[in-house]
Amino acid sequence: MMVLLLVLPLVGALLMLLWPKIAPLLTLLTATICSLAALQLLLQVSEQGSQQILLAGWPSGLAISLEANSLSCLLILLTTVLQLLVALYAFATYRRDKLGTGFWPLSSLLQLGLTSLWLSRDLFNLYVCLELLGLVAVALVSLSGDKAIKPALNYLLLSLFGSLCYLLGVAMLYGAYGVLDISALALQWQTNILSTAALLLMTLGLMLKAALWPLHGWLPAAHGAAPAPVSALLSALVVKGPLFILCLLWLQLASAPQAVAIAPLFTGCGLAALLLGGVSALRTPFAKNMVAYSTVAQLGYAMLALGLLLRFNQPLFAAALWLFVLAHALAKAACFLAIGEITATLGGKRLNTLKGASQTMPLAMFAFAVAGGSLIGLPPSGGFLAKWALLQGLWLQGDQLLWLLAIVLATLLSAAYVFRVVVLAFDRADPVAPDFAPRILPQWLALLPALAVWAMALYSEPLLRLLKQEGL
Amino acid sequence: MTDLSPQLLLYIGTAAGLFAIGLYGFIVGPQTLRRILALNIIGAGIFMLMVVLAYRGLADGAADPVLQALILTGLVVAVSATAFALALLARLKQARPGQYRPEQEPGP
Amino acid sequence: MSPFWQQYLPLAIILSSLLPGLIIFTLKETQVKLRISLNLFGVGVKLLLVLLMWQAVKAGQQFYFSLPFLPGADLVLQGDALSLLFVVLSSVLWLATTIYAIGYLEHSPLRSRFFGYFSLCVSATVGLALAGNLVTFLLFYELLTLATFPLVVHRGTAQSLAAGRKYLAYTLGGGVILMLGVALLHSLVQSPLFTPGGYVTAVVSGNEGLLKLAFALMIAGLGVKAALLPLHGWLPQAMVAPAPVSALLHAVAVVKAGAFGIIRLVYDVFGVESMHALQLAQPLMLLAAATILYGSWRALSQQDIKRRLAYSTISQVSYITLGVAMLGPLAAVGGLVHLVHQGVMKITLFFCAGNFAETLGIHKVRQLNGVGRRMPVTAMAFTLGALGMIGIPPTAGFISKWYLGLGAAEVEQNWLILVFALSGLLNAAYFLPLVYRMWFLPQSMPWPQEQQLSNRFETHWMLLTPAVFTAVLLLLMGLFASTELSPLSWAELIVEREFRHD
Amino acid sequence: MSLLLFDATLCLLLLVLALASILSRQLVHGVILYIAFGLMMALAWARLATPDLALAEAAIGAGLTGALCFSALARQQLHLPVVLSWPQRLWPAVFVLLMLGGVLAALLQLPPTASPLVDVAQAELINSGVSHPVTAVLLNFRSWDTLLELVVLLLALLGALQVAPAAKATTSWPLSLSWSRLLAPMVILLAGYLLWAGASQPGGAFQAGALLAAGAVVLRLNHQLNWLRWSNFWIRLLIVSGVSAFVLAALLAMLLTTDNTDVIWLRWPPQLAGGFILLVELFATLAIALTLTLLVVGEPAAAEQAQQNSGGEAHD
Fold it and tell me: Transmembrane residues, as ranges (chain A) (predicted)?
């Protein structure tokens, strides 16, 4: 099953390169099959426990090891489903939006990169996956043509720098312990300058790639310039890849003193991201940049949860962390698709374009509002589940009023930027006239993930069980 | 303080130095091409560190094959990324011809 | 009644307005008949289901429906006596408001959207009433915010957008604070079902500080919607909404949601015993009393009719809070029954104010002179409502104030009687001039914007009937307060069940 | 001692070249210095007993990257040198020095012994199907890395083609044309040798591919091999074949696996491992060569136009 999930997008991408004409259909096909396979894998893993593979059948240490635990499977499922959804959206709009033929193979390769990243438990293999992911992401951004070249180049350079920092860390760890497999490494782990320095270097690189505050500068421009389906994929999935590795490192490798020592960094950065990202989202005049800044802010929650998890070692924070990741992925995909569809139809990049959108494009606007509800954390959305877990954890630790205050502020900020758009949409004074008749299908496609993130709440029990199954 | 031989120390120091030089170039270098070069120098420094690590202990007269393979992979990845970056750069230049200003512009 | 029904009845009650609402969203503007029939069908089904439940609850049955949600806090809908009080109120008033809104919005654009959100709003209110634990309550509380926002900004003018922003800022802020409080309480005792007598008693010792904090947070969160003193700022502004929306906001949905939440919090979460142990009643009482006086005082100086009514709401809703906070059985009866009475009275007043505005273009107090001759029926209904608000027998308002006064005496808080008296005077001072102008002053200027909405009646029959209906209702509730069907006896039933446990 | 002196000189040279490449006023000088740096690096690696890598670094780090940079330089105008103010130089320098200090302090703790994996790899070498340990790691022990690496290379080509500006037509130079015709067969022979040697000696797919690419680039710049472009289906097929042969071989290997053992992704059947690896390498070499060639020379303008047109028609 794992092999299928890895091979199919790759083969698909190769076929698309050979015969570009069938690429859209092929993408849909592979994405559908992969989604089903991912579901199957998730069910298997949740019943029988995690599966491990030593690739090529060599002994542990020599071989690259893959592990499908419930978290990985969940992330794979998320990846494939969003891939399918975005492919559908792109299929419905690519003629109108002049999406390059390059989109299809690239998106399949993106799926390959993500899937292998979620599965891999080998430090160097993760490096290759990261590079793959970074290059695909940049190539996808550059699909937008001239306006996207500069952000894409900037993204690429920073992403390369991030990878190199990570690689240096890997080299140091290999030099010290002689293994690359994470679980093997964890067994021999010692707390010393070398391991700390390696961890810090890798953290620097990964934070840069995941656009975690204060290294987020490249993100709004790149995500804002990309075509809508691409922004959806990037914001929803790509930034989560490095975050996943970051969590692997700190949760599985780092020793307790190291984890406790780094915790303030993550919580502090998370807090700053939440507040400053929110303020930026509130101030930017461009619609897509607003959504992009919101990604910066929302990643702050994940970072905050990670920091608190490292500090208190409370499983609720782990649940919060991954719930944030899942909920944000779905909600952000919906936001980008909805905003992309609206701006494409109403013709303009500025937020003012959205004036009166609740009349001209009610479905897309509804999708945005519903997804926004999850970003704010209104019950019963996925975002609420995550926030609830975070609050529970904080109250259980007691005396964490500062964090609670920050969460309240962050929630209000996110409400402010979401409703800034919604209020504009309800402005009936002089609505912006659409350039052409709004299309229904893409709007529905934008609505789907938004509804999914609210439906997440109904599956909170199994979700939490799955997430607790893994200590990660 | 350290168990490494002087020769290894020398090379390790050089590797770290290259990393630092590249880092400086990456942060400061005003032209994009220079920053790409700087990235390559960082990469070279890291690969050099890995080569030294492969060389140390020299079992049976052969350096650590695993590390060598990693370096080869890394080299290819690095050159691929460089090629892509240069292609982007070329496009950027073409998109706004005739401009002689340095690329250090205020962000968007 | 089969257990199957018992399980799904609460859900069905919510769905009976939710589903028509969702379908209405998809309708075109021109499908007027289909929309109206759907709306009325939903109302009818809901009333029927509520009746069924009412019968059963009276007989002592419980309804219970749950979905797994958070660990330790399922999504629970339960029908007990207290929730039914609110459900009945909202469904009956929904009927009236729907008819009114159909008439009111007859020719305005975007009606599908309006009625869609209207139904969502009622669904959220009913869900809130039926919520079986704090987490479920929180969920519907937030949904209510979301569903009402589009109604507040429905007109889409700069003024209404500004009001909408303010409304959101207040209510979402309140929502977050409520969430904090709920989360805190959940971390202490989980979120079990609402139980008469509360469920925190067991953990009081050792957690006093945290419990007080949780209570304060939740009161602050609920206080936003209930328009408690420092948190009332959104309410007068939200007046820009169309009249049926204001009616709904003030009488049923938003403000009452806050008040209802306070009732639940005090009786079914903390319980009388813990409230005493934690000494929480006194501050709440002070707050409510201050709000009562402040609202009345501000209402005096308002020249816009709807604004005056809005400040009156701020004051009147705090009667409920006050009744609850006194923690005595009689006061509780007064507070609970005022939940219903105030709803019916206030909705009457808003219907009438809407009628004046729609038919004659009257918005200001001074324009009311002589309206009694032009629109006698509406003016009569308005007068009844105003008398009720002041608390003059035999209207419903008298009953609730009587019980509140008795309750204050019972718990020996005599200063409250003074508050009631003062507030009653203020009520009279701002309502009686309106009545006087309508009936006893001659028309002093031409009607600002007169419209001929009907040939036979003084205004469109769909605008008139709801006002008359609620006016009659409030009179009946006062006259037949001692019968078995009245809200009063139902409130007594609730209080008996609440206080019986100890 | 003299060896240590040699080492010290080499290291110093490396550092100076790198610094000069970063600080030189003219970009052109920077690129030239970088190429020199790459060559020195190759020398250093050869000194450190890693001839495979030295070969690769010379081909890639110096040769290919240099060529790419030059072609990028050719496409842009010369920049006026930018003069940076002191704070602009100072603060980064402070930051870099701090970081250098930290990294050095950490690196000093490295143990002098080799990784335990070396012994494992040596022990398993006989089962790998090849006798050269690096090849064994690349194409058998850690073949998944290599497969992904080929994908990355392919991806770089895709990205580059997608953003490629229309290339300027250059006139060829008669002398180089005749030379290149002579050069081509030799290059192919040499590449074939490198590929074959990879199984037991230094060499392998990538080095061979790079060499082939160098030959092709020379020819291509002289307007030979005009069929060598992305829009040509067969070229696409060949480029893609590097990855697809790998995948197909892996799938075939899964099929061939006998029933009593678990089916494992990328495991070559022990008896046939050598054959599989050679097959994979052969296609990889061709694909690498073509990919690199296209990366350096880009897609000819006319052909790109034609492709876009046909692509556009197909979807409209």
Answer: 68-92, 124-143, 155-177, 197-219, 231-253, 259-279, 291-310, 316-339, 360-381, 401-419, 440-459
